[in-house]
Amino acid sequence: MKIDKVISISGKPGLYTLVTQSKGGFIAENLDNNRKTSVPASASVSLLSNIAIYTLTDEVPLAEVFERIFEKENGGKAISHKSSEKELRNYMAEVLPDYDEDRVYKSDLRKLFQWYNILLKNGLITDSEDEVNETTSEEE
């Protein structure tokens, strides 16, 4: 999984990848339309690799949740983020049975599944075995 440079920008839809640093912030590229945009340093930005989902006992990194969805769907798309709250929660319970229903809101679930599908479409979510093979071939 290659989400270490993928970000979410508050107030802007979709996901972005960091391209380069600029004078007053940085340049990011939208994963949906490949358009570059300037993001000021004052913008509220979250790295996907720093986001976690609350469970009843701990927090699970977003990357691990994405891996579980990938395994559940055999590398296919997840449920639509526009599904009903009940469908989203049932799906999430299958993926992460002990997620904290009180602290994980409907809007969080919508973002989670939307982000997963965007990352999958852009080839940023892959089978962990593929990554091991890529790393091994790079070392040779």
Distance between the termini: 21 Å
Percent in helix? 25-40%
- Apparent shape: globular
Strand content: 15-25%
The strand line-up of the biggest sheet is: 4-3-2-1-5
Reading the helices and strands in chain order gives EEEEEEEHHHH
Residue-averaged pLDDT, rounded? Answer: 89
Spans with pLDDT under 50 lasting ≥5 residues?
Answer: 130-138
- The gyration radius over C-alpha positions equals 16 Å
Structural class: alpha+beta
Would you mind describing this structure in some detail?
The chain is an alpha+beta fold and 140 residues long. It is 36% helix and 22% strand. The chain contains 4 helices and 7 strands. The chain has helices at residues 62-72, 85-95, 106-121, 128-139, and strands at 6-9, 16-22, 25-30, 36-40, 45-47, 52-54, 59-61. The protein has a 5-stranded antiparallel β-sheet with strand order 4-3-2-1-5, with no helix packed on it. Strands 6-7 form a two-stranded antiparallel sheet. Strand 1 and strand 2 (16-22) form a beta hairpin. Residues 130-138 have low confidence and may be disordered.
Which terms summarize this structure?
36% helix; two-stranded antiparallel ribbon; disordered C terminus; alpha+beta; 4 helices; 5-stranded antiparallel sheet
What topology does this entry show?
Elements: E1 6-9, E2 16-22, E3 25-30, E4 36-40, E5 45-47, E6 52-54, E7 59-61, H1 62-72, H2 85-95, H3 106-121, H4 128-139
Antiparallel strand pairs: 1-2, 1-5, 2-3, 3-4, 6-7
Provide a brief overview of the structure.
The chain has helices at residues 62-72, 85-95, 106-121, 128-139; strands spanning 6-9, 16-22, 25-30, 36-40, 45-47, 52-54, 59-61.
